[in-house]
Every structure is written in C-alpha cells, then in structure tokens.
Task: inverse folding
C-alpha cells in the first residue's frame, strides 16, 4: 500500500511563495513510484476537493486548473519518491488544505475518483 506524506504548508502573505512536498513510501508488489501518476488537490472549508495540478508517470505531461496556471508548478523527483508543488504569487483564494494523490497509470488524472491513494493534507493559508 502506498503511503503519502505532505509537508511545506503554512501561513504566507499574499504575493508570497510556498513549496509543498509529498513523499511516498511503500507500494503494491511489482510497482515503483515511477509507475504512479501524481496530483495535488485542494479543499477549502465547505467546498469540494478540486484538482490543482497533475503530472504523469514520467513527468513529461502536466496540467493545471486555470486559476493557478502561470503561478504553480508541479514536478517530481523519482529518486526521492517525491512530488512537489511550487506555489508563487499566492492569493487569499488559494487558502485550503492541499492533498497529494496517486494512481498507477500512464496518463493524467483529473477526477478525485481516479486516485487510489491520498495523503493526510497540509494547510495553506494566504493572508491579505
């Protein structure tokens, strides 16, 4: 079973930056971290959990929700079993709990239901 642990959240002023990390451990038999597509989702109080960014198994494909394009960058380092989310020019509306997620596959995943493994989440708060 894959375990995901997020870190890097915190309180930042609008316009600031944060880098989230998600480190994976364990896996299903026959698979490695490089077999997993990864993503960052976020959930604000009273709202649905929405996709922020997704990256495929090789790191060669990425996609973002429109509201973060040009500000956030997802990347992965398979030597460290880690996926990152670099967040720049943060806005108060980026405030949410950010979750790392994974599934075994070759493409990108856009829906919560596509992901089999989830981290516990890390709080990001952007003050105005």
Result:
């Amino acid at each position: 079973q894959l375990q995901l642990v997020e870190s890097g959240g915190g309180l930042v002023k609008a316009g600031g930056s944060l880098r989230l990390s998600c480190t994976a451990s364990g896996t299903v038999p026959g698979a490695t971290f490089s077999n997993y597509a990864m993503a960052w989702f976020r959930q604000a109080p009273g709202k649905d959990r929405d996709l922020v960014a997704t990256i495929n198994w090789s790191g060669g494909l990425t996609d973002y929700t429109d509201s973060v394009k040009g500000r956030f960058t997802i990347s992965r380092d398979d030597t460290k079993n880690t996926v990152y989310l670099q967040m720049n020019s943060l806005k108060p509306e980026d405030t949410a709990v950010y979750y790392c997620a994974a599934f075994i596959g070759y493409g990108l995943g856009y829906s919560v239901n596509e992901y089999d493994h989830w981290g516990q989440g890390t709080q990001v708060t952007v003050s105005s």
